[in-house]
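User: Run a structure prediction on this.
Assistant: Running it now.
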Amino acid sequence: MTTSLDEFENPEAVIWEGQPTSCRMLSSADLFFVPVSLLFVLGSVLLLTAPGSRAAPLLVIGWSAMSMYFLVGRFLVKYLSKKATRFQLTNYRALVIKRGKVVRSQQVIGMKVNITESLSRKYATVSFDSNLTENLLGLSVFAKQAWLSENTGLDFLNAFNGNQDRVRFFDLPLQDANIVASLVSQIASS
């Protein structure tokens, strides 16, 4: 992080803190992942029950384990991850903190804020970026972002996309999302 004279005059301070709601488990990406999970389970059943099947036992076990993770396990991982996650907004940065350690940090000065509401209009995701684009489904996502695996329990897939420096506050109550957007606007105008 580069320092400037302003940072010495105005030290970084937390101006908002929140946590994702742990009760919201489905996301728009599940329109893809749930059917794929069911296909994986079907594949496991076919491998186990096909007459004369001589599939390697390790293949069957591995495929079945992966199928169960996609269908059920990722929701447990997502729940536990949400319980361990805190979001902070400072007068300079947006931070994602897991188990007391900052895992993502992004400067918010000069950034655009996008709020994507859930279908129920009770929750929202706050995105910070200078280059927001719209995907084919009409959901706001980062350019070149592997948006499909985020907030699904499959977040480990993001290690391969090279965009781990982007910060998004997932599954905030809508009121909190609007507060964050307002605070970032105030930071930009000051």
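Residues 1-190 form one domain.
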